[in-house]
């Protein structure tokens, strides 16, 4: 059983398509273990994306991620990390496979509707970033 951190990014919340994304999560059989609407500060967005600090898109990305409310979720299931990444599709909606969330709902490589942890180590950091008490919640 794995847990992963998902974010419905500010572009998707602003366009009121969060419900359609949640529906895809549920239909895929991923369990929503925790969920919260957050308005990140610039500093919180910078902390979350700290691994990308040196990338040219970092200022724009953290500006965007703090531009409006987002929904953070903990998803749980067998191979939840990879399953959620496959549901999202490639980072750039223009190259994402048909039927993926980013293909259907993303507007650009930056405003790509969703985030998902890419490995168990990053999932542990990212879940803890938003839900420090998650290990206390009973699974089941
Ligand atoms: P992910 O794991 O698919 O989300 O991709 P990355 O970890 O490489 O990048 C994190 C986020 O930064 C992406 O989801 C995009 O929102 C943004 N991003 C990635 N690459 C670019 C880029 O080349 N340009 C811009 N503007 N944003 C990017």
* Major sheet description: 4 strands, antiparallel
Bound molecules: guanosine-5'-diphosphate
Q: Look at the structure and name the CATH superfamily of the domain at 2-38 and 71-130.
A: Nucleoside diphosphate kinase-like domain
Strand line-up of the largest beta sheet: 2-3-1-4
CATH topology of the domain at 2-38 and 71-130: Alpha-Beta Plaits
Distance, first to last CA: 11 Å
> Could you state the order of secondary-structure elements as H and E?
EHHEHHEHHEH
Instruction: Name the average pLDDT.
Output: 96
Taken from the alpha-carbon principal axes, the silhouette is globular
Question: Which structural class do the helices and strands define?
Answer: alpha+beta
Level of helix content? 25-40%
Strand coverage percent: 15-25%
Question: Would you mind describing this structure in some detail?
Answer:
This protein is an alpha+beta fold and 140 residues long. The protein has a domain at 2-38 and 71-130: Alpha-Beta Plaits, CATH 3.30.70. 39% of the residues lie in helices and 19% in strands. It contains 7 helices and 4 strands, in the order βααβααβααβα. It has a 4-stranded antiparallel beta sheet with strand order 2-3-1-4. Helix 3 (42-48) packs across helix 4. The longest helix is centred in the C-terminal third of the chain and has 11 residues, at 120-130. The protein is globular, with a radius of gyration of 14 Å. The model has no long low-confidence stretch (mean pLDDT 96). Guanosine-5'-diphosphate (GDP) binds next to helix 4.
């Amino acid at each position: 059983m794995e847990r992963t951190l998902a974010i419905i990014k500010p572009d998707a919340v602003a366009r009121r398509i969060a419900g359609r994304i949640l529906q895809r999560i549920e239909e895929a059989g991923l369990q929503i273990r925790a969920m919260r609407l957050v308005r990140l500060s610039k500093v919180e967005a910078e902390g979350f994306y700290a691994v990308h600090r040196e990338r040219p898109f970092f200022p724009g990305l953290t500006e965007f991620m703090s531009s409006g409310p987002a929904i953070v979720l903990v998803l749980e299931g067998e191979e939840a990390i990879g399953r959620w990444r496959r549901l999202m599709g490639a980072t750039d909606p223009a190259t994402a496979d048909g039927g993926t969330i980013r293909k259907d709902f993303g507007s650009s490589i930056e405003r790509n509707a969703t985030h998902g942890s890419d490995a168990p180590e990053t999932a542990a950091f990212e879940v803890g970033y938003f839900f420090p008490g998650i290990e206390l919640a009973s699974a089941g």
